[in-house]
Amino acid sequence: MNVIVVGVGFMGSGLVKRLTRQGFDVTAVDRDQAALDALGSDFEGARICGVGFDRAVLEEAGITRASALVSCMGSDEANIVVAHIARSMFRVPRVIARLHDLSKAETYRRLDIQTISPNAWGISRICELLTYRQLDGVFEIGSGEVRLVRADVPPLLAGSTVREITSIGEVQIVGVSHGNETFIPTQGTILADGDIVYAAVAASASRKFKQMLGIGE
How far apart, in whole angstroms, are the C-alpha atoms of residue 38 and residue 130? Predict the structure, then answer.
């Protein structure tokens, strides 16, 4: 998979290094040569020095054959321009843009551009940690509308079935860990005290799922 990362500041450089370790073919683009040099000798991908929203720079980076582009510069305006060019002009299959100002999220959505906001994630994660009650977030899907969460099965639910903690369109149990085994359950799977369940939960149903588990606010 060929990925272009535009902007290799703190977030971008970390992303470049991680994707490279995972076996992706990565091209780093930044207007600051020093930032590109800071990626170090371990980075074997291409380094393109130039303005990320310059069409010629993107073509040099191989955008016509890119599987994905991530724009994570310090400017929302610059990120949206790069993402829009990648999506509309070059038809890059997957385009992700870093978003600093959450009020601009609707603009990105109208352009069919997926966003990631470290600020929003940080706020959400801090609140989650402060209010932790046997329920832990594992992964966010999309812009956080659906979350994969992990929860302990409390003693009061021992003997209950997965069906009893499922709500169509809101809560779906996707995995159960019992002892040393983790498996995909059926609606009739019986839960035991000490089991761990993994659930896909709509953001609007988080409180409902806690109530199902008997977890206080």
Answer: 36
Contact indicator for 205, 170 with CB cutoff of 8 Å: yes
113: Cα within 13 Å, side-chain hemisphere: 30
Contact 45, 36 (CB under 8 A): no
Q: How far apart are the first and last CA of the chain?
A: 43
Reported as type and span, the H/E element at residue 202 is strand 196-202
Cα–Cα distance, 82 to 216 (Å, whole number): 45
CA 102/CA 115 separation, integer angstroms? 10
The conformation of residue 168, written as its DSSP 8-state character, comes to T
Tell me the sheet residues that pair with 173: 199
Question: pLDDT tier at 189 (50, 70, 90 boundaries)?
Answer: very high
| pLDDT tens column, 142-179 | 767 888 888 888 888 889 999 999 999 999 999 998 87
Residue 105 near residue 115, CB atoms below 8 Å: yes
The token pair at 165 is: 């903690």
Q: Rounded CA gap, 193 and 155, in Å? A: 5
Rounded Cα gap, residues 111 and 109, in angstroms: 5
pTM of the model: 0.60
Query: Tokens standing for 152?
Result: 């302990």
Tokens 């902007």 correspond to what residue?
A: 7
